[in-house]
Write the structure tokens for this entry.
Amino acid sequence: MTSLKQLKLAQRLALQQQEVVNDLNNLIQDIDRAERSINSLKVELEGVNQKYQGPRDTRQDVDYLTALLACAKKKLVWERHMASLQKRTPEILSRLTSLINDPQAPADESMRATLLQALQGVQAAMERLQSAKS
């Protein structure tokens, strides 16, 4: 017979596992958002360079530099977003590892499958982001 203490522990662990899954899914969404941002930034930068190629007068130089500055600001926002992702990811993964390797209450097979699916989603999103960056 399971005691009340064991039931509360199981509930708490299930809640923690669900939080990790939610954090991983949020991480995937943030990585996808970063990928879309860098892709749109590349398109915008190519458009600016295309628009202002060839000889320019002073007014066009100012417009070109203003457009480049706008792109640089967007890239700075993207870099801050990436720094935030780099800070959050190890913490989420360490929580995941501690939950999976918890000797008192290891995750059941369905939760392990859910966690694995979320991890594979993170991996796929990271690969897409890496290819978008290069």
User: Anything to note?
Assistant: The mean pLDDT is 89. Residues 43 and 69 are 15 Å apart (CA to CA). The chain is about 85% helix and 0% strand. The helical segments are 4-51, 58-100, 109-133.
